Every structure is written in C-alpha cells, then in structure tokens.
Amino acid sequence: MSTHPLELSARVIESGIVDEPINRVTNEITELAENLAIVESFSHSAVFDTGDGLMCFDASGAGSGKDVVKSIRSWRKDRISNLIYTHGHVDHIGGSFAFAADATERKFEKPHVIGHENVDARIDRYTQTSDWNIRINQRQFGGIRSDMGLNIGENLQRFLPRSTMRPDQTFRESHEFTAGSTKVELHHARGETDDHLWAWLPEKKWLFAGDFVIWNYPNAGNPQKVQRYAFEWAQALRRMIDQGPELLVPAHGLPIEGKKRIAMVLDDIATSLESLVTQVIEMMNAGETLDTIIHTVRVPQNILEKPYMRPLYDEPEFVVRNIWRLYGGWWDGAASRLKPAPDSQVASELANLSGGAENLMNRALELMESGDIRMACHLADFAGWAAPDDPIIHANRATIYERRRKSELSLMSKGIFKGAARESQAIADKK
User: Fold this and answer.
1) What is the pTM of this model?
2) Residue 365 sits in which domain range?
C-alpha cells in the first residue's frame, strides 16, 4: 500500500525532499477525513459522502474513468448524486461515461453534473478540433513513457469520448447549494482555463482546488494550448487563502492538511505568478521585445526547488510567453516576423550563404558538443528545412533533438523535442 497522501505531503513540504512519487496514478482510493476520500489517478477524483448520496469532484480521464469508479465502489455503494467538474480538460471529464454507466448498472439516476458555463463551449471546441488535440497531446506526452492512464495512443479516434456527460447545471461567477446537510460553494476563476472553478465547504474547511494546485510549476504557459491567465490564477489562490482552509484536495498531486501549511503553498504559487506578470509588464512598458523578456525574466532557483513548484510539467519561460500573448498579442516585436518568408526559403538562403545544408548541420553538431544546445537546434532546423529529404541531415537532426530532450526537465519540452527527433528519424529511416 502506498504511503498515505496526507502523511507524504506533510513530510515532503516540511523537509523539501521528494523521495517517492508525489503525482501518483495508482487508481487507489484513500480516506482523507470522515466521509471524504480521494482516488489518485490522472486526474484524481475526490469523493464526499454527503449522507444523501456521493458528491465527486472530477471524473478522471477516458482511460482511467472505469478504474476510478471501481475504486469508489470499493469504498461506498451509495448513488453518486453529484459530479462537479473543476474544469473541462479531457483528463477531468473524459471518464464521466463510466459514472453514467455505473448509474445505469445500479439502476440509479445519473449524477447531476455541475460545471462552469464555459465547459459546454470547451466540449464543442474539442469536437471541432479533435484531430488537432489528439496530435498535440501525443506530442506533449510523447517524450516520456505514458503510464498515466491518459489515452494518447496512435489509435485514438476521438479526443473526447462521445458519451462524455455535459453539465446539467452551469453558473457564471458562483453557485451555492446544500449536499445532504453540508453547504457547498463553487467559485469561478480563470487560471489554467477559462472554465475553472474551485469548491469550498465552509463547515468542513475543505478546499477542492482542481488544477489551481498541481504539485508542479503552474501550468500557465503550455506552448500548444489556448490562453492561460497567470494573474487571475494568483488572485484565485489569494481568495482561497482568505477562506482559511484546513484541508486542500487538488486534482493532481497530494492533498495537503493544516491551515498554515496550505497557506504557505498557495502563497508561494501566487507570489511566483504575480512576480512573473509584474516583470513582464514592466519590460513591455519599457519597450522591450519578447526575445529580450524571455531571456531576462527568471524565477529564483530556490523557488523552483520547492517540491510543489518544480518545472517538471510546464515551466516559467512558457508562462512568460503566455503573459506576453495575453497583454501584447502574438507578434513578438521583430519586424521580419510580422509577415515572414517561409522557413524553407529562409533556410535555403542560409544554406547557400554557408556553403550548403551540410555546413549548417556540421556547425550544429559542434555546438551540441560544446553545450550550446539551443543554438544547435536552430541550425539543425535550418539544415533540415533546406534539405527536407536528406537522410543524413535528418539523422543528425534527430540526434540533436534527442540530446535536447534528455537535457530538459519539463514534460512539455521533452515531448516537443522528442516529436522533432521522431520527425527527422522517419526521414532518415527511408534511406
């Protein structure tokens, strides 16, 4: 049996030492308090026995929903009366079909689904861009071994299952109701998404934070996804602190117990996001370009070393880009990139000037060996674009990007760089 999540989180936060996994995908259920349990999955599902049915926060993903329901049923047999979506990401709502199937099997009414009003629009967008989302998620998670219960395989036909349950009830700013005899407050705030909520049970002092807390650096920068909202994320965390929670249950990572400990974690996350926003806007106001900003703004290393702030999924450099995009648009300030020539044409010109794509690639390999992997990737791309069918060029490009992948910490960087390596290796293999 795994270490109890509350015991593990207390130890890790107090010591700063991560000596076992903290984002666990076991599908095991653990009781956190009287009548409250969590199934650790991708994402988690938190379950509260209200005395008048079970209330679940998130349904996990398409690949884990059945296992999550099975674990819930090992704990309680009562009807799942309410299913609350903290937001509409596929790993939070994709498993809802299993909750509906469970109700049918047990001859219960289906759970009453509650979410923010933008969840429906997100589901519609996922339907419209299903192939795109499949592709980018295969790339995002493709740099690691996929054992997280998220169906990202090559044979996935639909990003979000057709049988995903839509909300029966939505709200805009806040919604209050009573579950059993317990008051439940749902509060909307933009952060990782525009359809996010956090839940507060004032009598219990329980906070259900969704992805506002993920035990990684905040996912406010994802380079392949839609706009994120760093400052509003921080504001939401400040509101959570003001409630004085004594138990925090996130949708990823470990639950946290203790008012002081929770406030410290929320404050650390909020302060870091606020600092990034302030630094970026100050530099924008001073007329700096995005290029200057992304190579100047930093999060102190001692912050990134905290066990709940490590950049193992998203990373601050990507958050900086999203702050720029929110406040300044998509143009990065370089005039040539407003209406650029095609990459292949720019690459061909550079190859001609340098004596051929081989020279570009040779220099890229030299830079890789000297440790300048960022510059090596630029030249490797130019060589690949200038010689799109050359197996030797692309074998070397694959080597460079595989080296880059191994040097990175964040899953997002690893996935994209692994995607580039695979792309070139496929060309190299045709020789």
Assistant:
1) 0.95
2) 341-428
